[in-house]
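Lab notebook page, bench 4
Experiment: in silico fold of construct C2
Operator: M.H.
Input chain length: 156 residues
Purpose: comparison with the prior construct
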Amino acid sequence: MSKKDAYRPNVAMIIVSSNYPQEKEIFIAQRNDLLDIWQFPQGGIDQGEEVKEALFRELEEEIGTRDAEIVGEYPEWISYDFPEKIAKKMKPYKGQTQRYFLLKLAKDAKINLETEHPEFSDYKFVSVKDVLHHTAHFKKPVYETVINYFKNEGLL
C-alpha cells in the first residue's frame, strides 16, 4: 500500500444553519460510540463516486437530509492520522484525507439522526469561536485550518 493509499478518501462538511449569513452557527454532532466526542459530519467516498455525490449521500446518511447548498469548498485535500486506538479498527488505513465543504441548511431542512446506521446521538449549533472546544483532539488541527480558511474567505 502506498503512502497515498494509507489514507481513506473522505468528504467532510461544516454545516451552518439556515440563518446564515446573519448568524454563523456551526452544526456539530455527538458520536454515539465515543463518550462526549463531537464532530462535523463526514464519510468515505465510494470507489468511482464523485466527491459532491459522496457529500450529499453522506449528508443524508449521517443527518437524514440532503436539503443544503454548498457555500464554499476548501481548495485541497487535507489529511489527519487516526489515534492508535481508532487506527486498529480502521485498518488498512492510518488516517483520512478529506475534502471539506461549507454547507448551508435549507430553511425547511429536517435533521434526523435516526438514520439507517445512526452515528450520532445528539446535535447542536455552536458559535465559530466555540466549535473547537467541543471537538475531538486529533481532529482539531484540521478543523482549525479549514475554519480559518473559510473565515479568511469571509464565509465564517
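Observations: The chain has a mean pLDDT of 93. The chain has one domain: 4-152.
Next step: discuss at group meeting.
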